[in-house]
Amino acid sequence: MRTKLFRAPLKYVQGENCLLKFHDETCDLGSKFLFICSRSAHRTTRPLIEESFEGTKTTRHYEVFGGKSSVGEIEKMRKIVRDEGIEVIVGAGGGSAIDTAKATAHYEHKPVVIIPTVCATDAACTGLSVIYNDDGTFLQYLFYPKNPDCVMVDSGIIANAPVRFLISGMGDALGTYFEARVCEAVDAPSLEGMALPEDRGGVASASMALCERCYDNLLEYGLQAKTACENHCVTIPFEKILETNTYLSGVGADNGGLAVAHSVYNGLTILDELTAMHGECVAFGTITQLILEAAPREELEEVMNFCHEVGLPCTLAEMGISDKDHLMQAAEKACAPGESIHFMPGDVTPQQLYAAMLTADALGNQYYG
Ligand SMILES: [Zn+2]
């Protein structure tokens, strides 16, 4: 039996215009700030953040960041930290800015604050980054000893981001409970646990509580949140889904673990014709996982109905995949050694995965085609 592990951001703040309290929420961390911002995050967050600093004795360096979380970009940010005596690193934007900020803070031993400006993935709350080579190819997952010191989600900013990001974030969140359920059942490690030696990093009950709430919130509030976002409105269901996509799904996956759904995403990324975002692939991967598990019909239909209702893909065509011959290559990649799909009881072969993906696609077409 593994030892259990549960870890999370030290502080999570969410609400409309909460960035007006940025300084109040982070002043305990230091007084010299480096903001690593995507171009759009710089435009939307800086005025609010600056207002929060009025009358304070602090310095703020805003670095507009256009690149990927690559070795070279991280080096560049580390130099700014050392040259200017920066005390707090802030990442504002999507996955790349967030991952660069986390890596910079880790290497320079500084606290890190995360401001996601889209809710499309789990990046904000997790204790790991995806790192790329300078030529843009994937290098490694970098696991940190702790999660971010503070995460601040301004609902007003997310309500004005494209709705597809929110929907994709719901897809990423859809996998969380079902993947964690497999990991808990077979005593597999959580996502963070995968970086630890053999007998550590098991799924705690606290993690499962978050994962279950994650799925419940999607079913209850997903459609209303999507509609609110399409109309740039902040409503209670919209707020529930922001928390679901960012915290429940992020902390849930970090501590709950991965299984088939994320391996399906990793496999699909080798297809040139793929047009779907990360979370959209994870949603299709979740349906595929339920087929592999021979899940009860009601559960499968509940998940498929949810996907159809909010606009997540139930078919290959909806992900841009027209040539089913290529799908076997994706199935092989998804079953590569070290993939989380191997946590499934009895394991899964590429042929079995291929069959399950084709079945998911056929069911999707049959139900909604
Ligand atoms: Zn994910």
TrEMBL record:
Cofactor binding: number and manner: Binds 1 zinc ion per subunit.
Pathway info: Polyol metabolism; glycerol fermentation; glycerone phosphate from glycerol (oxidative route): step 1/2
Keyword RNA-binding applies: no
EC category name: oxidoreductase
EC number: 1.1.1.6
CDD domains assigned to the protein according to its UniProt record, in alphabetical order: GlyDH
Ranges where the Alcohol dehydrogenase iron-type/glycerol dehydrogenase GldA domain occurs: 9-154
Cofactor requirements of the protein: Zn(2+)
Amino-acid positions noted as binding NAD(+) in the UniProt annotation, renumbered to this chain: 95-99, 126, 128, 132
Name of the featured protein: Glycerol dehydrogenase
Source species of the chain: Eubacterium pyruvativorans
